[in-house]
Amino acid sequence: MLKVNMGGPFPENGFPERCWVWTGSTDKFGYGRFKIGTTNHQAHRWFAQFLAQRPLRWDAESRETVNHRCDRTLCVRPGHLYIADQKANVADARMGGEHISIRRRKESEARDQCVNGHLFTPDNTYRAKSGTRVCRTCQRVASQRYRERKQREQIRLAQ
């Protein structure tokens, strides 16, 4: 039995048909997942391959992905899906602001403390070359552990 809500919402980008929203399990990136036998499948990829009557190519010559015209990762409506290459997929996602790197950056910027619970204050935060925030307290602790480990290695080698 398919786990699809065919009366889903209309896409926010003005696409004229309602989305068919996957209501089953999802992966950490927000895509629908299901299992046939022992094989895991991404729901939108399965629907697109089923309609195209062929598997997607992922080799040196072609890296095909399934894109969403509606920009909704849980949508499996065939008319909202199209097969394109990886480069087009990333460009499309960046244009819509939905690329995973953009989403993660937004989520990270919304947090007010690091993974160890230290507050992101101006005195306790700096920007790495990549642009991400780094907790000075955590960095100081990590550097101290590294120096201690190196000292122990030196002592062990000297013996």
Distance between the termini: 67 Å
Number of strands: 8
Q: How would you sum up the global shape? A: elongated
> How is the quaternary structure best described?
single chain
Class computed from helices, strands and strand pairing: alpha+beta
Order of helices and strands: EEEEHEEHHEEH
Poorly predicted sequence stretches spanning 5 or more consecutive residues: none
As a percent range, the share of helical residues equals: 25-40%
Number of helices: 4
Q: What about the largest sheet?
A: 2 strands, antiparallel
Residue-averaged pLDDT, rounded?
A: 81
Description of the structure:
This protein is α+β, with helices and mostly antiparallel strands. The chain is 34% helix and 18% strand. The protein has four helices and eight strands. It has helices spanning 43-52, 86-95, 100-110, 136-158, and strands at residues 4-5, 21-22, 33-36, 39-42, 64-68, 81-85, 125-127, 133-135. Strands 1-2 form a two-stranded antiparallel ribbon. Strands 3-4 form a two-stranded antiparallel sheet. A two-stranded antiparallel ribbon has the order 5-6. It is elongated and about 65 Å long. The mean pLDDT is 81.
Considering the chains and any ligands shown, give keywords for the structure.
4 helices, alpha+beta, 159 residues, two-stranded antiparallel ribbon, elongated, two-stranded antiparallel sheet
